[in-house]
């Protein structure tokens, strides 16, 4: 389950990559006394979903399981009519949720922590409106979302 991802500029061959993967797997297995099948280290064909979320949230283990279960069902529905030699090839076998973002800046705004979206939209709505009025399609779309009841300030409805 750990994920080691090297980014490189070298023209590594499959053999180089396999050697590196085996060495990292061996190191991790012996250092943390983890079974090799959990660590990986061998190339395998699989359907996998990596989810990158904000870290430091108060999500519970059950919420993470619910997220995973829902996304697996979305996958299953989307691929049900894909023709394949083995039905097991359709299965989403691996789902990893990683809390990796301590802070996020998108389109010039620091994004709110989970559970704070409505408050963030209300606080930033005037600036969103300026950008939408200037032709920014992202903020035009965001303002449409902000019309939903949960984004209205008390007394606006």
Question: What's the SSE blueprint?
Answer:
Elements: H1 14-32, H2 36-39, E1 47-54, H3 61-79, E2 92-101, E3 105-106, E4 109-110, H4 117-133, H5 137-145
Structure description:
- Residues 1-125 form the Tautomerase cis-CaaD-like domain.
- It comes from Colletotrichum musicola.
- InterPro entries: Cis-CaaD-like, Tautomerase/MIF_sf.
- Pfam families: Tautomerase_3.
- This is Tautomerase cis-CaaD-like domain-containing protein.
- A two-stranded parallel sheet has the order 1-2. Strands 3-4 form a two-stranded antiparallel sheet.
- It is of the alpha+beta class and 157 residues long.
- The model has no long low-confidence stretch (mean pLDDT 89).
- The protein has helices at residues 14-32, 36-39, 61-79, 117-133, 137-145; strands spanning 47-54, 92-101, 105-106, 109-110.
- The chain is elongated, with a radius of gyration of 22 Å.
- Helix 4 (117-133) packs across helix 5.
- Helices cover 43% and strands 14% of the residues.
- It folds into 3 domains: 8-44; 46-102; 105-151, no CATH class.
Uncertain residue ranges: none
Structural class: alpha+beta
- The count of DSSP E runs of length 2 or more, i.e. the number of strands, is 4
> What is the makeup of the main sheet?
2 strands, parallel
Q: For the largest beta sheet, what order do the strands appear in spatially?
A: 1-2
SSE string, helices as H and strands as E: HHEHEEEHH
Rg from C-alpha positions? 22 Å
Helix content: 40-55%
Beta-strand residue percentage: 5-15%
